[in-house]
Each structure stands twice: as C-alpha cells, then as structure tokens.
Specification:
74% of the residues lie in helices and 2% in strands. It is built from 20 helices and 2 strands. Strands 1-2 form a two-stranded antiparallel ribbon.
Amino acid sequence: MILPFFIIIPLLAAFLITLVSGKKDNWAIILSILAELSVLVLAVFCYVYQIDDIFVYNMSGWKIPFTICLVQDALSCFMIMVVSIIALTSLIYSVTYIRHLVSSWRYYALFMLLVTGMNGVILTGDLFNLFVFMEIALFSAYALVSYGRKAEEFEAAFKYAIMGSISSSLILIGIAITYSYTSSLTMATIAESLKNKPAGVTFWLGSLFLAGFGLKSAMVPFHAWLPDAHSSAPAPISSMLSGVLIKSLGIYTIIRIFYNVFGAPELFKTLFLVFGILSIVIASFLAIGQWDIKRLLAYSSISQIGFILVGLGVGNFYGILGAIFHLLSHAIFKSLLFYNTGAIEMAIGTRDMRDMGDLRKALPVTSFTSMVGSLAIMGMPPFNGFFSKFFIIMGLLQAKMYIVALLVVLGSILTIAYFVKFQRYGFRGKNVIEKEMVAEPIGSGMKFSMAFLALLCLVTSLMLIPGLRETTLDPVINVILDKTGYIKSVLGR
C-alpha cells in the first residue's frame, strides 16, 4: 500500500534533516530533494496507473468508523501530484536562493513538514486528522514566512498566524458540532448520517466550514491576510503558499466537504458564485494599483481563486473541468511568476516596478519565462490559462448564467491589464539593465525551475486533447460530480 508513504517520506526527511545536518545545509538539501522526488515518483505512478481506483488504508487494522483512514481517489491523486511538482521545483530553486538569504538546514526541515501537512490534508478520510495535518502545514508556513528575519516578515507572519487561528477555531467548532450530530469523524460516515438529519444542520455546519476554509483559501471577503504573508515570504515559499497551500487547505477541502460530504447544496453553490465574482473583480482592481511585484501577484492569487470558485459554483461538467484545470494551471504559472520575482529581487535588489527597467539582456531566462507565465495567466492561447477560463465560461453559458459569464470575461480583461503593467514596467522599462549591473547571478537551479514550469504552462494544455482528457481529468471530475460515489467506495457499499 503506497498511501502512508506520501506522509511518512517527507515527515521522516524532516526528522533526518534535524539529526544529520551540521552547520552547512548540504545534507538538508540532498535529503529534502530525494524525499520530494520519491513522493513525486509515487504520485505520478498513482495518477497514471491507479486514477480510476479508490484505495482506503485503515491504520491499526480496525475498521471504519473506529480507525483513522487514508483515502486515495482520482481527486487526491491529482492534488498530490500538483503539490509534489511545485514542491520539487521550489526545493531546486531554493538551493541558490535561500543561501542568498540565510543558509540553514531549518528551512528544509520546515519545508518537509509543510509538505507532510498538505499531503495529510489531501489523503485523510476523517475531519479531525484533516485539522491536525492542516495545523502542521500552517505552523510550518508561519515559520517559513518569517524566515528572512526582517521586521516586515515577522509582522506578516504574526498577521497570518492570527487569521489562521481564527479560521482554525471556526473549523474546529464545526468539527465538534459535526461529531455531536453524527457521532463520527469519518467523512464518508458523516455524509451518510447527514442524509437523515434536517437540512438546517447541513446549512449551519456548512456556514462554519465555509468561513473557516474560505479564510484558508483567501476568497474575498476573507482575504486580508494574504497580500502581506505571500509578499513577505521568500520567493520559493511564496510559490508554495500561492501555488498549492491555499488550494490544498482551502479549495481542496471545500470541494471534498461541500461536494462529497454535504452533496453540493444549491445554497452553497450560489455562495461560491458570489464569493468567486467578488474575488475576481475586487482583487483585480487592487492588483492594478500595486507597484510591488510580489503584492501584485498576491492580489492576483485572490482573483484567480475566484475563477476556481465560480467553476465550482456552476457545478456542471464544464464548470468543474474549468475549475480543476485552473487549479492546476494557477499552481504552475503563479509559482513560475513568484520564482521570477525572486530572481529579480536577488539580481537588482528591488520589487518596486518604478525602479526596474529593461531586464531582457541582464536576465534573459527570467524575462522570457515571465512572459510565458504572464501570457498563461492572462488566458492567451495556447497556454493552459486560456483553456481553464474558456471551460469556466462555457460552463456558465451552458447553465445560462450570462451575467456571471460577462463578469468573468471582465475579470479576464482586468487580469490582462495588470499583467501588461507587470511586463511593461517590470521587464521592458526605459532604463536598460546590463549584465554587469546584476548584483548576484541567478543559479542554474533557479533557471531550471523557471524553465520547467514555463514548459508546463504549454504542455499541460495537451491534457485537454480528446482521448487524453478522458484518462487524465475526467476521473477527477467524476469523483466531484458523483457525490455519493465517495461514500459507497469508502464504506464499501
């Protein structure tokens, strides 16, 4: 059984790093990259060969509901693979970048704990362990945001911790009330039990979970913590937070709880649409007003989460397809864009677009890959962002939600506006920056990570080709749309 190894490998790596690492970070780098590479190989194996199957691993050999269970289905396979790809490229990028800040094995130990927490959240089949793994990931994230040890970073980590504590409290209250009504913490058992309860119980529980997980995903109006936290963290951690953390702790849990446990009530799908549109429009206008490139990207993340929520709110095949594909696409191009900002800050020492210039000669790989990432997030064909937004709009038109579709198109135009600004002032300004003016050279690992994700912005579009889509994305969508299938598969009925 492969399932426990997605948690054991990064957790073991975190402990080994603390035991064997000395003053230098060499062993920490080797152990963390080997661990994450192993997890990625296992994730790809599961995604390619086991995507149509559901596996349940009962710890201690007891049966549900008297055990802690891990569940692997197409949705969890997909999420683990997304997290593993971004985590591995972030580690490779970190080798040069973190030595430029503060070289320490502690960074890699915390990074492995962050991955352990996210993998645990994705795989667990019960609510309380979801909470425990979520806290492991969050405590690691708080420490990593403040890793640079500057006042601005400590302040951002403190705000993040306060908002994280509020959202965790709401989720814990929701879990306690759920247990009092259903006498179970296993999600499949809860789903079956809630069928016999008044609809009001689901609505009250859903409200608590939506507020809690909405804070984790940074949807508007629960977004205030994100711009400070994501812009203050080191660039590879910003990519992990924006690329995968808000999705595994926020969007994935929303999908699992509201679709597979609650059965996607219409009220909550409507709320997803409302919060999605608010996130797209408000965060886009806030992004346009930014001159700090990392804050621009942070507001952009809130806006792009809105596109995913709209797809989930539509709830038909094309809406879910667009949402799931946008989750993957955003993880790739947003991580790439944060890598670009880290390279710029390292090379010329600023994040303010007004102090930048023409970087194409000094940073050719960074400039080129940033253009690829910008085109992808703007939704230009043939990059992945075009297809994800196209399918979300297609889902809205199929559901005859024409006004919402128009607002999504408006949001796409606003995205183009602030990324044109990003390219115009960030990379093609009047002042030409020559190679000799670069303070620190960009490492080969950083270039590899940027080039690899830029390639994925194009290659992942191939997943939508008829024939490939049926084997790569349709099983994930079926898990979400087949609301009772999860219960039957986990409980074996």
